Amino acid sequence: MDVADRVVVGGGIVGWSAALELIEREPGRRVVLVDDARSGRATPAGAGIATPFTRRDMGPDWSELLFGAMHAYDRLLPRLRDAGLDPGHQVVGRLLVALDEQEAESLPGVLERLRGRVAEHGSLGIGEPEIVDGATAATLHPLLAPTHGALLMPQVAQVDGRALQAALAARAQALGVVARTGRAELISDGAHLLGVRVDGERIGCERIVLATGAWTDALLEPLGLRSGVYPQRGQIVHARTDAAAPLPIVTSFTETYLLCFADGRLVMGPTREDSSGFEQTPTIGGLREMLERSHRLAPGVATAHWSEIRSGLRPMSHDGVPTMGEIAHLPGLVLATGLGAQGLTAGPHVGAWAAQIADGEAPPVPAAFSPQRWVGEAGRAVSASPAPPGA
Fold it and tell me: How does strand 2-3 pair with strand 201-204?
């Protein structure tokens, strides 16, 4: 039997961030990350927007988490770059565009709420927001349709999820994290966490971080537990453009977005499919929807060259907020999931926080995020409430 000081299950951004934090906190201890390399995960299919501000008010705990994630990036990025790694992170700004007069009339209200968040949490990851007119928006992004103005957030960043995941994995393994490929099963005697079994081989460990995204319940259900997470299929289109890049991220009031990376990659989307189950295959219907919405937002995309369509399963929470923290009925088991569409924004922060929880040295987790809301008094799964509208 193998033995580890800490085990992380899940090799996305959350999992590798947790593993890196664990090994940096105590160099030399044995940290094992287990991943089954399955397809359909959220990290490789994420568009790449890292922003602490969302138009839909997600509550004060979520806001604090997302703005805290900007500080986590601020600490993480120099460490990766100093190690000679490219985290795929670039500040490009963001435009929330108004395509008609009604949307333009709502921009001042959005700006007021955004300024309130900046006053409370600081401007890192936002910059000094301002409303710009249609002519200025067209200058900033030549692919756009004529607009009635836009809200500019000049310090929003875009992130290549695959590059960030690779950089985290490379740095963690360089410091000593052991990567194991295989399907993990949790081992428990009912009251105590004993470790994981990976393709039949046991790894003994009493402190485990579970960062398995939409598949978290598959590991918890044999223990009579659940995470409150369900899969939501998200599809995005990748193309290539000759437009000078990078350009600001463009988002719309219909949640359509457009990203232009420095290498000429153009990303358009997304779909949000709550009834997808674990079906990850891209669809013609999803492709048509994305192309029509993207062309309305930015007619200049018509000259882009087709590349691919990506599809992944977001770990959505039934009540709209993440699940993170230790399960009281099974001490040592730390969940870090349910980030939904905010995975690339909050993933490094949540992963590092989960590692600190596993070490018993973390800031308090908001009660709203606690796994206990999905576990009854007897330590068994409770029924999920419906997903909130627009989750």
Answer: parallel
